[in-house]
C-alpha cells in the first residue's frame, strides 16, 4: 500500500543504510556535488530559483550547508510538480514526494517559499497560480478531503477500508482544518506579492464560501454535522471513535478537526493550533473578498467567524501547568479536558508565529514554547544526534526535521537558531535531503527519503537567514 505509514516500516529505514554505502557524506569538501535530477529530468525549472540558489550558496562558507540548500530548496520544482494549461487556465498538480497524491496542506507549503521570487519569473508565478486553481477544484469537489489525485476518476486504495463518502479523484478523506487554511494562506500571499486577482474568480469565491460553511458545520452547535470517518485498520491513530464522529465536544465556538496535520486522529476534536490558523486565514479571506469582489457582507461573515473562534480560544485554549504556568493546550473538548503536547506537523503550537497567529515574543507563547521543548511534551525527544519534536505518526524517539526547522524559524535567540541549523546539517544521513523523521540517536534510521515539504521548508529557513541574519548564517 502506497501510504506514508508504509515508508515508516519499509523503504525509509531500510533504504537509509544503502544510501550511506555510497559515502554521500562527502567528508572532503570537494565531494559535495549536486544530488538534484539532471536538468532534462526536472519537472520545472525557474530562472529566479536557480539564480537564488547560486547567489545564496556562494554566500555560505559551510560547504555542506550550501550543498544541502542546493539540493533541498528546488526539490519541489525538480520532482513534484505537473504543470499544464486547462481551458486556458494554469493548472498545477503537486505530489508530496513518494506518494502520488496532492495534499492541500503539503502542496501549499511546498510552493510557499518560492512566492518572493515570482516577480523575477513570470513562469514561476504562473505555476503557483496553477496550484491555486487546482486547489480550488479540489475544495469544490469535497471540502472534507485532505488529498486528491490528478485523475479525477481514479478510485482510491482507501475506498476498500474507509467508511466515509469517498468520491472518485480523492486519495484520502481525513477532515483537517488546516486543509482549508493553507490554500487561503497561499492565495493571500500570492495576491499581496503580485497584485494579480485573476485566480480569484467565481469558483475561488465559491470555494471560500464552502470553507466557511464547513467551518461552521464543524462548530457543531446544533448537530454533529455531515462528516464521519472510520477505517478498518489496526492503527488507532487512523480511525475516529464513536461511529466516526469522534469524542464529544461542548459547542463553544471552536471548530472540530477529526485529524491533525500529521493525518493522525485527534484525541479531543478542538485542535488548538488549527483553530488559531483558521482565525488568521479567515481574516485574510475577508480582506481578499472585500477588495477583490466587493462582497462586504460575506467578508463580514468571515471576520465574524474569526472573531468568534478567537474569543473561544481566549476562553478555552489556555490551561494552567504546574511547572510552566499558563500555556496553550494542544487539544481541548470544551468540557475542561485537555491534551498537553505538540506534534511536529504544521500547524503546531510551536509554529503559531510562523503562521502569523501569535507574536513570537508573546509571553503566553513563550511559556508554551518552553513546555513544548521540554520533557513535559511527550513527543519531544532528546538524543545524541539532535533534539526535537516528533509525534505518534512516526513513533517514539523519531524527531522530525520539520520541527527543528520550525523551531529556528520561530526563534528569537541566535544561539538556538544556529544550533538548529547545525542539527539539520548533521542529520541528513548523507543523502543531502531532509526526511520525514530520524531516530534521535541514529540519523541513519529515517523515514521517507523523498518528502518535498521538509526539503523546501529547510530551503525557506536558509533563505530567511540569508536575508535577515546573514552574519549568523556565515558563522555556522
UniProtKB/TrEMBL annotation:
PROSITE patterns: TAT. It comes from the Bacteria. The keyword Hydrolase applies. Keywords: Hydrolase. One of its GO terms (biological process) is carbohydrate metabolic process. InterPro entries: 6-hairpin_glycosidase_sf (IPR008928), 6hp_glycosidase-like_sf (IPR012341), GH125 (IPR008313), TAT_signal (IPR006311), TAT_signal_bac_arc (IPR019546). GO terms for molecular function: hydrolase activity. It holds the Pfam family Glyco_hydro_125. PANTHER family: MEIOTICALLY UP-REGULATED GENE 157 PROTEIN. This is Glycoside hydrolase family 125 protein. It comes from Panacibacter ginsenosidivorans.
